[in-house]
Amino acid sequence: MTDLTDLGIAAIRDGVRAGTFSAREVASAFNDAVAAAKPLNAFLVETPDHALAAADAADAARAAGDAPRPMAGVPIGMKDLFCTRGVQSAAASRILAGFKPEYESTVSQKLWDAGAGMLGKLNMDQFAMGSSNETSYFGNVVSPWRRSDGGNADLAPGGSSGGSSAAVAARIAPGATGTDTGGSIRQPAAFTGISGIKPTYGRCSRWGVIAFASSLDQAGPMARDVRDCAIMLEAMAGFDAKDATSLDLPVPQWEAGLNASLKGKRVGIPREYRVEAMPREIDALWQQGVEWLRDAGAEIVEVSLPHTKYALPAYYIIAPAEASSNLARYDGVRYGLRDLPDGANLQEMYARTRAEGFGDEVKRRILIGTYVLSAGFYDAYYTQAQKVRTLIAQDFERAWAQCDVLLTPTAPSAAFALGEKSADPIAMYLNDVFTVPSSLAGLPAMSVPGGVDAAGLPLGLQIIGKALDEQGVLNAALAIEERAGFVARPGRWW
C-alpha cells in the first residue's frame, strides 16, 4: 500500500470515500509520523485521540451509507493561534502557557464539522510576530529542508506559520491552518515548497483566533498543492455573526471551479516589485513564471503600484499599533500567567506579568505601537500610515483596470539559517516586502512553489487577485503548478 503520509487532502478524502483505506489507518499513520518528528519542534501539543475519534466517525458514517462530509477522514494540524476547546491554545507565548479555552474558534469548528480531525497544535512565532519562527516561547521550529551544498545548518521554516509549513512539507500533516497578517501563510509556504492562500479579508471568521492586528489578520489553508488548498478553504470560510468583519456572502465551490486555462485573462507584472539587489535566482523564477502564465493563455501586461515602497513602513506602524491595543488584555488578571510577588500591588503585578510573559519581539512591537498611538505622535505616524494604506489600496484598484491578477515573487530570498537575521529586526522585516501590500489592501493572495535555488531550497511565486476573486488566484496558481512540476521534497533526517 502507498505510504499514507505521502497523500494530500484530496487523495485521502477520495481514498476514504472509495474504501481504498480506512480513515483510522490514515490517522494512525499521521499520528506515528508526528510522534517521530520531535526534532522539527513543529507540534506544541499532540492530540492523537482527536484525530482517531474523527477518523472513527468518518469510517462509521461510510459504513452506514451516510453522505460523505467534505474533509471526512483527513487529519490536519491546527496553528496554535486558534482556540480549541480543552486543548492548550497559547499563541506560542509564555503568558498563555497552559490556557485551555472553554470554546472553539469558528474556523476550527467548521473544519471539525467538515469531518477533519486534529493531529495537534502547531508551533508558531509568538502571537504571530515574526518571519522565521524564532520568537516562540517553546523554541524554534526547524525546517525539514537542508541545503544541498553540504551545509547542515538548521533553516527557518518561515513565520509566523512555521510549524504549519514544516509539518506539511515534512509529510507529518496533509494540511494545516495558518494565519496571515503581513505574509505569515505565504512566506513560510515559499520557504518550505508548499502552497498557501490568504483569502480576502473577512472570508474566514476571526472569532476565536487570538488577535495580533485585527484589521489585517486572516486565516487560510496551507497544503501540498492548489487543489488541497481549495478544498480546505471551502471548509474554513463562511459568514460568522460573531465576527463583525465577517463577509455575509456564499462560499464559492473553489475546487469545482479550478481551471488552469488563462485564455482571455491578463496578468499584471508590477514594476515596483523589482527591488534593489534582488537575487538573480528570484528574478529568473519570476521571469519563468511570466512564461508559464503566457503559455497558459494569459496576456502579460506591465502595471505600476507607485506606493509599494511605503507599504512596509506603513505596515510596521499599523500592525504594532493594533497589537499594542489587543495585547493589553494580558495583564495577569484574566488569562494565563500571573506574577504576583508577596506585597506587590496591582500595577506591579501587571508589570511583572508582562515582563515575564511576553517575549522580546512582542515587547518591541507593543512599544512601537504604544508610541505611534501616543498623544503628539498619533497624527504623525498612525494617521499618516492609514493614509498610505488607502493609497496602496487605490494603486491596486487602478491596476485591476489593466489586469485580472498580479504575479510577483513571494519572498526576496530562499530560507535562511536560524539565527542568521535574528539580531537585525529590519533585515527580518524585509522578508515581508512582497506580501505586505496585498495584506494592507485586504486582497486574496497565494504562494505556490516554482523551483529551487542553487542550494536546492524552494522558491515561491505569488499570485494577487481582486477582492473576492479567490477563484482567479487559485486558477493562476494552478497554471503555474502544472507547468512548474515541482516535485522536490526534503530528505528525512529527523
Task: Please give a quick description of this structure.
The chain is of the alpha/beta class. The protein contains 15 helices and 11 strands.
Helix count?
15
Question: Average pLDDT value?
Answer: 96
List the secondary-structure elements in sequence, H or E.
Answer: HHEHEHEHEHEEHEHEHHHHEHHEEH
Distance between the termini: 23 Å
Main sheet characteristics: 8 strands, mixed
Question: Can you characterise this structure?
Answer:
- The strands form two sheets. Strands 4-6-5-10-11-9-7-8 form an eight-stranded mixed beta sheet, with helices on both faces.
- The chain has helices at 9-18, 23-35, 48-63, 106-113, 162-169, 186-192, 226-236, 280-295, 311-326, 346-357, 360-372, 378-399, 425-429, 436-441, 470-484, and strands at residues 43-46, 75-79, 117-122, 175-180, 195-198, 218-223, 266-270, 299-303, 405-409, 445-452, 458-465.
- It is of the alpha/beta class.
Describe this protein with a few key phrases.
three-stranded mixed β-sheet, 494 residues
Task: Outline the fold blueprint.
Layout: H1 9-18, H2 23-35, E1 43-46, H3 48-63, E2 75-79, H4 106-113, E3 117-122, H5 162-169, E4 175-180, H6 186-192, E5 195-198, E6 218-223, H7 226-236, E7 266-270, H8 280-295, E8 299-303, H9 311-326, H10 346-357, H11 360-372, H12 378-399, E9 405-409, H13 425-429, H14 436-441, E10 445-452, E11 458-465, H15 470-484
Parallel strand pairs: 2-3, 7-8, 7-9
Antiparallel strand pairs: 1-3, 4-6, 5-6, 5-10, 9-11, 10-11
Helix pairs in contact: 2-3, 5-6, 9-11, 9-12
